[in-house]
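Bug #2210: token dump truncated for Membrane protein DedA, SNARE-associated domain?
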Amino acid sequence: MFKFITEFLETSGYVGVFALMALENIFPPIPSELIMPFAGFVVARGDLNLVGVLVAGTAGSIAGALPWYYGARIYGKERLKKFADGHARWMTVTAEDIDKAIAAFDRHGRTVVLFGRLIPAIRTLISVPAGLACMSLGQFLLYSTIGSLAWTGLLTAGGFLLENNYEQIGKYIDPVSKGIFGILLAWYIYRVITHRPAKA
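Reproduced locally. Full output below:
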């Protein structure tokens, strides 16, 4: 994956940064932990502009979050609760869990969106409760943009500062990203296997 991302960004520039960051938010296994550091390497070599990379990365991150936000908002809480009751085992949540999550989001929504954009895996999924809770689009965009800019800035700075070692860094980041995904997958399988139906 590291080789694919590096070659793609070398040829596609800002459009590539935007596209990969949008995909990363729609399909989480494409990690921003690889995309933005390499964009920082390219900036350090003088092939791309730092501001352009940050704008492209942040805009792509927001563009990828919007389908999840609108999808959840259109589908709605009540339909999701009914769906969860009918498919509780593989969803690993119940209608009651959804009510509790949305109640917590109503109390802390802005903080959750802001800091959720800084956490791997949560970064994508945080758009769903925002949509279900009908958080205003303006607030969602504002706090998502701040959080996404901080995340892309941190990763880009890392790549910029470690320019000469980008190939060595890739050897470590790629397995770590796959390892995190493997842990999340194992946790999900465990939840499915150990799920017990709620008592009537």
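Output looks complete on our side. The mean pLDDT is 79. Marking as cannot-reproduce; reopen if the truncation happens again.
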